[in-house]
Amino acid sequence: DYLPEADELANYLTKNHIDRNTLTVSRTHDASQVGFLQDYAQLSSALISLYQVSFNAEWVEMAEKLTVAMLDGFATDNAAFLSQSTAADNLFMASYSTLDTDLPSGNAQAAYNLVLLAELFYDTRSDWKNTAKQMLAAERSEIQIAPAFTGKWIQSLLLLEYPPYEVAILGESANKSRLAMDTAFRPDILYLGGASEGTVPLLANKLIDGKTMIYVCQNKTCRFPTDDSQKAYEMT
């Protein structure tokens, strides 16, 4: 019931808070109020999540583009972390946000997004996984000392240590099949699919006319497909 509301909100944000030419995210209606690292990372994360429950490729494609802009705009001399702001001449804003507060820190959320997008766009963005690993290595001591404030970092570590199941669902009833499988909290499952193959590489050559098939994969290796949601879930 909440999905149409989420789609409406995503449409509003992408049309009113993103400059399509520069891929700059604004914090307010004033386009000159450029967003912070956390704004870019959280918006991208929301779009990745929305793709997984809607199979609208527009959202994950925008998340990839925003991540490219984020990596370019917030890069610093410190190769591991991204700056909190693009205002590099401001000492405070040039600091590195790494610890979670009421929301994940910008760097932690960015690292998590990089792992997921490296899985989804492994043909062109596989290097993003190494970028995330470098960030995690730099954050290692804080993760050990303050795990209560590095939860999003730990989620990234878990995804790297235990690669997620990539559940590709293709066909006219793709959303219905996904809903039938999505019955529990499974952060180790990455859903992708739709009525067409689209631009996500793992979906290539998997569409079968007149059928909705589910492919349970891990590390880009897929088991024999099935049209039974329960059987597919038992494979994860």
Describe this protein's structure.
Helix 1 crosses helix 2, helix 2 runs parallel beside helix 4 and helix 6 crosses helix 8. This protein starts with a helix and ends with a helix. With 236 residues, it is an alpha+beta fold. It contains ten helices and six strands. A four-stranded mixed beta sheet has the order 4-3-5-6, with helices on both faces. Strands 1-2 form a two-stranded antiparallel ribbon.
The structural class is alpha+beta
Q: Total number of helical segments?
A: 10
Mean pLDDT: 93
Strand order of the largest sheet: 4-3-5-6
User: How many β-strand runs?
Assistant: 6
State the main characteristics:
236 residues, two-stranded antiparallel sheet, 4-stranded mixed β-sheet, alpha+beta
Give the arrangement of secondary structure elements.
Elements: H1 3-16, E1 18-19, E2 24-25, H2 37-54, H3 57-73, H4 106-120, H5 122-125, H6 127-138, H7 140-145, H8 151-161, E3 165-170, H9 174-181, E4 189-194, E5 213-218, E6 221-222, H10 229-234
Parallel strand pairs: 3-4
Antiparallel strand pairs: 1-2, 3-5, 5-6
Helix pairs in contact: 1-2, 2-3, 2-4, 3-4, 4-6, 4-8, 6-8
